[in-house]
Prior knowledge:
CATH class of the largest domain: Alpha Beta
Strand content: 5-15%
Radius of gyration: 26 Å
Structural class: alpha/beta
Distance between the termini: 47 Å
Shape: globular
CATH superfamily of the largest domain: Metal-dependent hydrolases
Oligomer: single chain
Number of helices: 24
Amino acid sequence: MKSAERRVGDSDAVFINEAPTLVIAADSPKSCAMNKADIVDILEEIAVLLELKGENPFKIRAYSSGARALETMEDDLGAIIDAGKLSSMRGVGSALVEKIETLYATGELEYYTKLRASIAPGLIEMLEIPGLGGKKVKKLHDALSVESIDALKSACEAGEVAALKGFGKKSEEKILSGIANRAAYAKRHHWWTARAVAEPIVEGLRALPQVERAEAAGSLRRLRETVGDLDFIVASSEPQPVMDWFVGQDGVVEVTAHGVTKSSVRFESGLQADLRVVPAEQFAFALHHFTGSKEHNVAMRQRALGKGYSLSEWGLKSESESESKGIESEKALFEFLGLAEIPPELREGLHEIEAAEADKLPKLIEVSDIRGVFHNHTTASDGRATIEEMAAAAEALGFDYLGLADHSKASYQANGLNDERVLKMADTIRAFNESGESPVHVFSGIECDILPDGSLDLEDATLQALDYAVMSVHSSFSQSEEEMTARVIRAIEHPATMMLGHPTGRILLRREPYKIDLQKVIDAAIANRVIIEINANPHRLDMDWRLWRRAAERGLMCAINPDAHNTESLEFYKAGVNIARKGWLEAEQILNTRDCAGVAKWFAQRQ
């Protein structure tokens, strides 16, 4: 239908629809072909497509308003449609009623299909470049007749875009940078997306009678933020049937190799996958080697050489031995070399060998350690679910508590809350907890904008009325490093600041971090007892895992936050746990491994 990633106007919110769906009991009167969130996506995309065609602004606004009305609607859409009340909803005009009902009932809309088909695909692709919305793409098309990203790049390089009113040299440079990043990013895929492809393949391989053992390897196994391609290692004495199954999978659009020991395929998404089949006695060596990283493997080979052995993907043997040592697991391989077993996510060549030799590897946080999550949104701002729905999803995940932190008013594109609405939301959360409706305790919070000068978007009294506050940058990303660093540190030093949200503003494979001196920010956070989050949205995973080990050793506390905008994306916390593990973090260094009483106590002491 459309890209898994969605941008709302110039909102900094990122949504992806790749999480497994949680099954939650509901009182919906009937099943639907398309849910409310998907209908909102369609309406918003129609608005953008109409901008590309230069349609009447009132018509465009009608679709945007209808999308927002549905997004913030707390009642069940099916019940509203059954009762014939859709047309009475504020923001849903008569022209939209039939379209929404059709999408809900059938999952298809001829108007949308024809509209999308009427626009050059290249113009739609231009929308993927940061900073280009429907209006700007139309202006570029009308003025310069560009209908593809290549044509746009040529126009920028010729200085034609800079000469256009409303663009200028800086805009031209940003477009060129966005095009360059898009080309580079196209070679990689988010870990969450790659995992969704890899898991069924591993299950399928293990189900084959010829397969003794099967594992995914490579950067996916090391839990890197993004993955270039997939690697699978299989132990089998009958490789041909395994290879035939691999290249014949559903979704394979190209077979680039089909051999006896190695095959390669490419999927529709562009993701490439390689399968290697080895004898059982070589499996542990092949799995270790193809898991990597290169730096880790070099260090391991050097260690083996120091003990008189040669280590490769084929085995481990000395000069005097003709056959490899009989080692059946990676753990046994590490032990043979005098090391504690190093988890795959730590195999990055960052002194893990030394730590394993000294038996000082961390006891890494586990997914099961997480008791609840913070920094989540509801329909009060730009979320897709109500307090009740978010709490039910949290209960289904086994959480004891849930923090809700909707946007503040400066994030106008996300329907941010002013002081009055924040206080009303806090009262609503308090009443929800007192009702006993859910075993999940809901903490009242806010994601408060850090304004360009470092001041906060809400009154002090408002912030003090909440359980906690997450402070985040959502604007003025082009500030200098000095300005941005001073801006964020000023916010950290405010007494109401308990957490810093997505500290570099990066969006993986789409937007580079803004310029900021994170070491100074970390120093300020430690000094002011402020938590820095791991934003677990798979498109962010910010703060970067490379910074966490040293920061945590110095006393920085972490919180793993999914930044969930719907019930399904609460499950993103698992991607955050990946980053915490790569950052060598243990359970006691992370706030949301504490029970509800422990979190409440920390909030109270911090206030």
